[in-house]
Design brief:
The protein is mainly alpha-helical and about 90 residues long. It contains four helices and no strands.
C-alpha cells in the first residue's frame, strides 16, 4: 500500500476519534442537564466506525456509561474485533 493510503487511514481515525470524544462528552453534559440525549445506538455506531478506543478512554475518564454493561463489555468487544480485522488485513496484504 502506498504511504498516502496510510495517511488517509490515520486522518480518518483521528477524525472519528475526535467525534467519539465529542459525542461522549456532549451526552454526559446533556445527562447532567436533563436534556435530550444522544442515542446509545449512535454512540455504539461511532465506536464501531473506529472511535472505540477514544470513546472507551473518554467514558472511563469522565465516568459516563460505566455502569452499563452494553458499553463496558460492548466497546472492548468492538476493539477486539477491530484489532482482529487489522491483523487479518495485515496478514492478507
Amino acid at each position: 500500500m502506498p504511504p498516502f493510503f496510510w495517511m488517509i487511514i490515520a486522518a480518518y481515525l483521528v477524525i472519528i476519534s475526535l467525534v467519539a470524544v465529542y459525542i461522549t462528552v456532549a451526552d454526559k453534559k446533556k445527562a447532567k442537564k436533563g436534556q435530550w440525549r444522544i442515542k446509545e445506538s449512535t454512540l455504539l455506531l461511532v465506536s464501531a466506525l473506529g472511535g472505540s478506543v477514544a470513546m472507551y478512554i473518554t467514558m472511563k475518564k469522565i465516568r459516563h456509561k460505566t455502569q452499563h454493561s452494553k458499553f463496558m463489555i460492548g466497546i472492548p468487544a468492538i476493539m477486539v474485533a477491530q484489532a482482529a480485522l487489522i491483523i487479518a488485513l495485515i496478514v492478507l496484504l
